[in-house]
Amino acid sequence: MTTQTVHDGRPGVRVDNVSKSFGANGSRVTVLDGVSLSIGMGEFVSVIGPSGCGKSTLLKVIAGLVEADEGSVTIDGTSVRSAADGKLIGLVPQSPALLPWRTVLDNVRLPLTVNRKANAGRAVRDPEELLASFGLGAAIHKYPGQLSGGMQQRAAIARAFVFDPSILVMDEPFSALDEMNRDQQRLGLLEFWNSNRKAVLFVTHSVPEAIMLSDRIIVMAAHPGRIAEVIDVGLPRPRTAETYDTAEFRDLERDVRAALHGVMEKAHV
Ligand SMILES: Nc1ncnc2c1ncn2[C@@H]1O[C@H](COP(=O)(O)OP(=O)(O)OP(=O)(O)O)[C@@H](O)[C@H]1O
């Protein structure tokens, strides 16, 4: 096994000194305070931290769904707005958000058909092939209600790949699944990502999940939301179910939990 990090010289995601507050003057709350980070092309970065520390807000700022008050974000060298217009950003939400009256294949095709004119000439992936590579080849003509939660989430991930985005932002995509199923989905995602390297920002509450998937783990602190620590994972890839049983994995688990305890304790001072 080898440790491999793929950087092809492209800038990836750059977040520079981003701040964001919500609320009116008297009750204004700073949710992100001077957050800076970068994700190289082909790098997998997870964000973990206590509830309310601004993980989802950070993800939304990077995905162009929320505008930062201060600071800047660039995706592959361009502004978030033009990256979003150019379909460079793939988003996987917490719940699969599939349309129940459309088949799985039609759900994954939907982004291609919504604005056919604007999408003309854009590089796209074949929805059937994508679904097959996520193990859903036999389910393409089924409706979402006929699929398990894990299968629905895989379809949502496949949908995020149709425009072959440069970056993928994923907001706790496996949080609604039971642990066994969740683990299967993680390994499935890793297998696909290994041969389709994107810059990934992955929000999670699970320490083992963050370690298993990531090259780096960003630990956030709350009130205001900020980066407290960055932990390099460095486990060899490809990672498999056996990776959980290694001493290196357990050491990392201890380090990440200690970092989380650190930010929780400071929050109570
Ligand atoms: N649109 C909004 N308007 C007002 N407040 C908001 C808005 N979006 C988020 N917040 C507040 O910002 C803070 C951070 O929210 P965010 O969802 O980013 O945290 P999180 O770390 O993802 O939390 P969790 O782990 O519980 O999902 C919370 O206090 C939340 O109530």
TrEMBL record:
Domain ABC transporter intervals: 13-247
One Pfam family recorded for the sequence: ABC_tran
Keyword ATP-binding in record: yes
InterPro entries, per database record: AAA+_ATPase, ABC_transporter-like_ATP-bd, ABC_transporter-like_CS, ABC_transporter_ATP-bind, P-loop_NTPase
Entry keyword annotation includes Transmembrane helix: no
Entries under CDD domains matching the protein: ABC_NrtD_SsuB_transporters
Keywords from the named record: ATP-binding, Nucleotide-binding, Transport
GO molecular function, one term: ATP binding
Protein name as annotated: ABC transporter ATP-binding protein
